[in-house]
Amino acid sequence: MITRQIAASEQGKRLHRYLRNLMPNLPLGQLYKMIDQGKVRVNGKRKKQNYELAAGDELTLLMDEEEFAKASAGGGRAKPKFAGVSAKLDIVFEDGELLVVNKPAGLLTHPDRNEQKNTLITRVHAYLYRKGELDSALFLPATANRLDRNTSGIVLIGKTAGMLHRLNRWIQNRELQKFYVTIVQGRLEGEGTIEGSLVRDERKNRTLVVGEDDEDDFAGERKAAVTRYRALVSAGGCTLVEVELISGRTHQIRSHMQSIGHPLLGDLKYGGRRFGELNHQLLHAWRVILPDGREFHAPPPPRMQRTMEALGLAWPSLGPAGDGWVRFRKRRIGPVPPRHPMDEEVRHMEQQEQQRVVAVRKNADGDIVELKLSSGQVVDYKQAQQMARDGLIGGVNVFRGRDGEPHLRSDPDGRKDNNLDELPTF
Question: Domains of the chain by range and CATH?
């Protein structure tokens, strides 16, 4: 008989998904059979497959230790110690389930082939470890949204499996609103919606806006994309703009604003010009509204505020950015615009295409550190593993096999195993 206590970070996870995580070497059908036959008990009682686990629940498996050892080989992992990893974070909000942080520009969200230690997610893990909150060998807190290295602002982290699942669902169903502020070149007035479809050029790491007449001129899959913008104030040949992302494509804001003749100041890749020593975009995720009504804000970074002051840009009717920010952030920039008719089309297209792993990124040692999904979203390995087990990546199951290496397996019955090394890299 095997007994485990559910950790705080594991609360909210469905029973059958927890068991798949715990015993990755058992077929899904066998796990369901164990539940149906009463060989899995929670607090001494039989539970249904979709029972939502709570912190402190006692899970009992009616199986011997040798059988469990074979079923769980590769399913657990030793708790990392995060020696030498910074735990410095700009925390916007934190409770027992959710952590909201303000990512600085220049910091990666996830590790890549060149940087393994100093990333936002490793800082988060180090911070929680030192607080004694990394309490599960089966779950690591993960980000629900990802910002490019040179983009600053709000990143949402699910501290528990249940919260991470809700965040990912909200994003997938377009129930979570994300607003950015940026400085674009030229005088832009009023507000508008940009609906240009996007194609990724992975070789050049660029996103291209294409029209209906361009369909045969570009290789790659066309992705529907919608961006709303509102001009706030203009000065010095530039405009401060608030942008709402309706669809979250790679480099969407940068390519869309370039397509209407207003590239981001400093964004050399997408037609922007240098401004003094500034040679990258000033793009800041400043506001997020959750479906449950909670709203989080993060003031723009010092470099963005200094650039605004140099250009003569000020928050509307509130004086300089640094002086007026607190008052400005407590009110909305006008009402939240109504849902656009294009929203349902974009949502339908994304539901039709399903989230699938299409490419991987490796570090210098050849280990997979990030995976690209069919939606264009890039996630780290642990987050992809969690999303697959929570049903957010359709048709596949990401797991660690007996050899301890990550694998991609057809879901749910393991008809064919495909090593992630066989997928293209990006």
Answer: 2-72 (3.10.290.10), 91-171 (3.30.2350.10), 178-345 (3.30.2350.10), 355-422 (no CATH)
| Residue (of 149, 146, 182) closest to 254 by Cα position | 182
pLDDT of residue 419: 55
What is the C-alpha to C-alpha distance for residues 318 and 140, in angstroms, rounded to an integer? 42
**H-state helical runs in 64-133:** 65-72, 120-130
For residues 53 and 13, the answer to whether their CB atoms sit within 8 Å is yes
Q: Are 177 and 324 within 8 A, CB to CB?
A: no
Predicted local confidence at residue 28, as pLDDT: 78
Mean pLDDT (whole number) for 389-415: 52
CA distance 84 to 81: 9
User: Residue 388 — pLDDT band, cuts 50, 70, 90?
Assistant: low
Report which DSSP code applies to 422: G
The position carrying tokens 């497959």 is 49
Please check whether residue 140 is in contact with residue 382, taking contact to mean a CB–CB distance below 8 angstroms.
Answer: yes
Closest by Cα among 195, 190, 186, 119 to 157: 119
Torsion region of 84: left, alpha or beta (phi above 0 gives left; psi -120 to 50 gives alpha): left
Closest of 85, 90, 106 to residue 154, by C-alpha: 90
Question: pLDDT, tens digit, for every residue of 251-287?
Answer: 889 989 998 999 999 888 888 888 888 888 899 999 9
Phi, psi values for residue 39, rounded to 5°: -85, 0
Catalytic residue set: 148
User: Phi then psi for 343, rounded to 5 degrees?
Assistant: -55, -45
Closest CA to 256 of 188, 311, 336, 329: 188
One-letter identity of residue 232: L
Tokens of residue 307, six digits: 């650039």
**C-alpha torsion angle, residues 253, 255, 259, 264 (rounded to 10):** 70
Listed in sequence order, the residues at least 6 apart from 17 whose beta carbon sits closer than 8 Å to its beta carbon are 389, 390, 391
Q: How far apart are CA 342 and CA 98, in angstroms?
A: 31
CA atoms within 13 Å, Cβ hemisphere of 421: 7
User: How far apart are alpha carbons 210 and 196 in whole angstroms?
Assistant: 6
Question: Where do the H-state alpha helices sit in 23-142?
Answer: 28-36, 65-72, 120-130
The angle at the Cα of 142, spanning 161 to 77, to the nearest 5 degrees, equals: 75
| 321 pLDDT more than 80 | no
CA distances from 46 to 14, 15, 38, 68, 163 (A): 14, 11, 6, 19, 25
